[in-house]
Amino acid sequence: MKALIVSEIVDGKLSSGSLEIVSKAEELGLEYQLITLGSEEQPIIGSNSFKQTYLKRSPNSLQYNKIADYISNVIKNEQINLVFGSSTYQCRDIIAYLSVDLNSSPVSNVINFSLENDKVITLNSINGGQQLYKTEIDSSISFLLIRPKSFEPANIELNTDFTTIEIESGNCNVYEIHKEEKAGPQLEDSKVVVSAGRGMVDVANLELINKLSEKLNAAIGGTRAIVDAGWMPYSQQVGQTGKTVKPDVYIACGISGATQHQVGMKDSKFIIAINKDEEAPIFQIADLGIVGDTLTVLPKLIENI
Ligand code: FAD
Which atom of ligand 1 is nearest to the CA of 274? Predict the structure, then answer.
């Protein structure tokens, strides 16, 4: 089966979501290539392991219709049957265009997939991870949107060996770009994440979260409740409508463990939860549970690390 991975660039390199799909394609022995979207001048996205085409778009124009036209032609001309993208805003837009162009329903939120008798079988997570369903795709071209952190990223050396295609400007112009400042370890790739919930009681107490994360060299996350309350920016929200993380250690401080939060962190390797309510759902998935007040437990932890 011939496959195409629609990929993206983060910090000048192939995104970890794209590398996760590469590792699954390698595992299944698929014949695959990458088409990567971006506006960077010199990205490091090539590899000896696959054919890479860089679709360079202008940072001042959204050209998804033109990008989709280009990719549709590649799919038709090269008789590709399987098209992947990571579940990100950009890939969702592109896959939506492609699926209409090529008349095949996309399958989203895929957390695993396999090939059985030349059919693509997917496992999908819906309703904030409360339900899993299986699909068998009965179409000559399958479009799959893969949930980030579903697979380990491929450990391959990247280079600058790829073909670049410049995409002409479209009819939707970008006139302002705001980039969130990034400081310290980032949620997506940190080995330790310290997350805060409403059980931190007051925004001022997030100082304890900062101190603990500094000691552990951890990234900081939070629940939607505290993001909505303005305690933390949305870029740090973990969960169904935020980021998915899979660190070695996840420390949930004053978090109830609603399913919408769990879906973004339940695959962490070791989960530590601090909550004063021993019935809190977070304890059902915690490897280590501390029943106590965050404002008492955290200072002791910080002091003793
Ligand atoms: P609460 O549920 O209020 O829990 C606070 C916890 O702190 C309680 O368990 C309490 O016992 C404990 N506590 C209180 N005081 C202390 C103390 N002093 N010491 C120790 N423990 C204490 N949520 C997300 O997080 N991420 C998402 O992406 C997300 N997406 C959503 C999408 C949809 C469509 C919907 C409907 C909801 C979504 N939510 C999401 C919201 C989610 O349902 C919960 O409301 C939210 O996760 C709760 O956040 P919390 O645990 O901080 O607050």
Answer: 20
| Protein residue with its CA nearest to atom 35 in ligand 1 | 260
Domain spanning 2-166, CATH architecture: 3-Layer(aba) Sandwich (3.40)
Task: Give pLDDT tens digits for 1-14.
Answer: 899 999 999 989 99
The response to whether residue 266 sits with its C-beta less than 6 Å from ligand 1 reads no
Is 177 buried (19+), middle (13-18) or exposed (0-12) by CB count in 10 A?
exposed
Yes or no: domain 192-303 corresponds to CATH 1.10.10.10: no
Angstrom CA distances, 136 to 88, 111, 124, 131, stand at: 23, 14, 11, 17
Q: Residue 196 in 3-state DSSP?
A: strand
CA distance 12 to 29: 27
Mention every residue, 6+ apart, whose C-beta is less than 8 A from residue 130.
259
- On the question of a common fold for 2-166 and 192-303, the answer reads yes
Rounded Cα distance, 56 and 5, in Å: 16
- Rounded to an integer, the average pLDDT of 96-115 is 95
Q: Is the CB of 241 under 6 A from ligand 1?
A: yes
Using DSSP, state whether 220 is helix, strand or coil.
strand
Q: Report how far residue 278's alpha carbon sits from residue 123's, in angstroms, rounded to the nearest whole number.
A: 33
Q: Is the pTM of this model over 0.85?
A: no
Ligand 1 pocket check: which of 261, 268, 282, 283 to mutate, most ligand atoms within 8 Å of Cβ?
261
Question: Tell me: the pLDDT tens digits for 219-233?
Answer: 999 999 999 999 999
Q: Where are the domains positioned within the chain?
A: 2-166, 192-303
State if residue 293 touches ligand 1 by the CB under 6 angstroms criterion.
yes
Cβ 224 under 6 angstroms from ligand 1: yes
